[in-house]
Design goal:
Elements lengths: L10 H4 L3 E6 L10 H13 L4 E4 L11 H7 L7 E5 L2 H14 L4 E5 L2 H10 L23 H7 L9 H12 L5 H9 L9 H12 L2
Antiparallel strand pairs: 1-3, 1-4, 2-3
Helix pairs in contact: 4-5, 7-8, 7-9, 8-9
Length: about 210
């Protein structure tokens, strides 16, 4: 199970939204995991990840540099994340992960068929597939679907509806570019799994309505 499973969107705007999660297993391989995590984040950044997040320490990359994030990593059972906005870059990174064989669990979130095809291209056989069953209950009380597309990119819903509406208004008024507003929304996403490229495009569309 992963908190990046429930993203809402169209096939078109989810086509380049991928999160790669790597995590040690409690009481099995946490000890000695730090250097493996470091290799993971440094290589992901080198190979085109747009954001890196550490679930144990919260989203700290925006506060400084990748080195600052790496310095905080410990032997830990909490996951690290790499966000990609390009399928080819994802494929290259997954190929590297396969060859590096770091020995920690990896989950890739995205459109199931796209992830499957990408794994097949680089010689990875999936052993598990999980699908979100959507939202149940009084769904009429939920925000509009176009807002949920941004809101659900933070798996813990820390990118609030109020913040999203403020971001839309800021773009509409010309106070911020869509990219600047998307970067602001990234900050409270504690795990760093928020896709700012996709968010900027969605904000631009919403501000234009």
């Amino acid at each position: 199970m992963t908190h990046t499973l429930h993203r809402v969107g169209t096939r078109e705007n989810l086509a380049n939204d991928f999160v790669v999660l790597m995590m040690a297993s409690k009481d099995i391989n946490v000890e000695g995991s730090r250097p493996k995590y470091e290799k993971f984040v440094r290589k992901a950044w080198e190979m085109g990840a747009i954001k890196i997040g550490d679930a144990k320490h919260g989203n700290i990359l925006y506060q400084g540099s990748l080195d600052k994030l790496v310095a905080s990593i410990q032997d830990q059972g909490a996951p690290l994340h790499a966000v990609f906005d390009d399928r080819k870059k994802l494929a290259s990174f997954l190929k590297w992960l396969k060859e590096a064989d770091l020995g920690l669990s990896v989950v890739v979130s995205g459109l199931a068929d796209v992830v499957h095809e990408t794994c097949q291209e680089v010689g990875i056989d999936r052993h598990t597939v999980e699908h979100s069953l959507g939202r149940w209950g009084a769904t009429g009380k939920l925000p509009p679907n176009e807002i949920l597309q941004i809101h659900t990119m933070c798996g813990h819903q820390m990118v609030t509806l109020g913040m999203i509406n403020e971001a839309i208004e800021a773009v509409k008024a010309g106070r911020k570019t869509p990219e600047e507003a998307a970067d602001d929304l990234y900050v409270p996403c504690a795990c760093g799994v928020f896709n700012t490229t996709r968010a900027a495009q969605l904000l631009k569309e919403l501000a234009g309505k």
